[in-house]
Write a structure and sequence with these properties.
Elements lengths: L1 E11 L7 E10 L2 E7 L8 E12 L1 E3 L11 H8 L9 H10 L2 H17 L2 E7 L6 H12 L4 E7 L8 H9 L1 H6 L5 E6 L6 H13 L3 E6 L7 H7 L4 E4 L5 H9 L4 E2 L4 E2 L4 E4 L1 H6 L7 H6 L4 E3 L13 H11 L4 H8 L1 H7 L16 E4 L6 H4 L6 E6 L2 E2 L17
Parallel strand pairs: 1-4, 5-6, 6-7, 7-8, 8-9, 9-10, 10-13, 13-14
Antiparallel strand pairs: 1-2, 2-3, 4-15, 11-12, 15-16, 16-17
Helix pairs in contact: 5-7, 12-13, 13-14
The protein binds N-(iminomethyl)-L-glutamic acid and zinc ion.
The site of N-(iminomethyl)-L-glutamic acid has 13 residues, from helix 2.
Amino acid sequence: MSLLITNIAELTSQDPERRVLQDAAIVVENGRFAWIGAAHRAPAADVVHDAGGRAALPGWVDSHTHLVFAGDRSAEFQARMAGESYAAGGIAVTMEATRAADDDELTRLVRGRVAEAADGGTTYLETKTGYGLSVDQERRHARIASAVADHVTYLGAHLVPPGADAEEYTELVCTEMLTAVRPYVHSADVFCERGAFSEDQSRRVLAACRDAGLGLRVHGNQLGPGPGARLAVEFGAASVDHVNYLEPDDVAALAGSWSGWDSASATGAPGVVATCLPACDLSTRQPLAPGRELLDAGVEIALASNCNPGTSYTTSMAFCVGTAVLQMGLSVQEAVRAATFGGALALGVQDTVGSIEVGKRADVQLLNAPSAAHLAYRPGMPLTQAVFREGERVDSRGEVRGSGRGGARL
Ligand SMILES: N=CN[C@@H](CCC(=O)O)C(=O)O
Ligand SMILES: [Zn+2]
């Protein structure tokens, strides 16, 4: 069955030529983009969706979330707004609440967040463990995550749980816990920061997870300068996330990792994506990540929601894109690229998703606006109107939501 989406006022492709087409149409066949071009030249299809003069752009690729959690930390948030600093120790509060939630409750909570993300235009989603922090709990969280997310990351190295010895816990993360989660996860992450894991501990976690065949990512340079970005480069990680406090050497190391990549044609060997998390930066009152500087240095960046109860309780990629334009100096096209193709690069799926190109998975969203610029021009507005994943509606406004997908699964 083929689908024609026509009467698109502006189509942001994020293809290698970064084309922005006016008065465009898309044809989808078997869940893939089969044709893209001017609406008046569009071929016939079995089903026609009239976009009504709306803008179309790729579905968001949210490459950094922590959706497997229970509990509420709004009091901690309010204390922060009153002047307290963020500290990694808050993770333990969520660990307790999440351990107390049974499988059904936790699954219900996670599915609700995934559905919320889909309504906001997210069509490809990563999520992490990291609030279990014991072998059984990390395995449970990985299993629950793997039922609803496209990409699951093992973050046993999120915090040394209260009462545990840091060295013994690091060893557990590298051995028994890793074996327990391995069937459910695609990559591994470590929170390399003062108050979480040291450089040496992080290195051991990254080496063990690499040897287990996992892709790597690093939470780094979030709360102060540190070794996170350089470790990510050293280990050939797919991304380093947060990157609020980068030294010139860190930027140079990240830029060097992209020397085998041709940004103009989006081909070659990808380096380490710098994943910026602007909603988190605002909620923790950290300086916004230097997205402009990184782009200018030749680093590919991603924008992600970092949805979690401690530092960034939102699934809104549109909010991240709007903030990147309004406050980080990115153009609309750069911000949309970072939230789509950039996220795909950070997850290693850039050949499949993240742009509107013939042959790629037909993940596309329509905005209640004539251009993508409205994402920043009308900040905070729920502009996403329709969301298609593999050519099927997945948002709650669509009539076929959930059919054949097991409910809220993206
Ligand atoms: N920085 C580490 N982890 C999360 C926050 C976790 C929490 O505070 O619950 C983050 O990405 O911001
Ligand atoms: Zn995070």
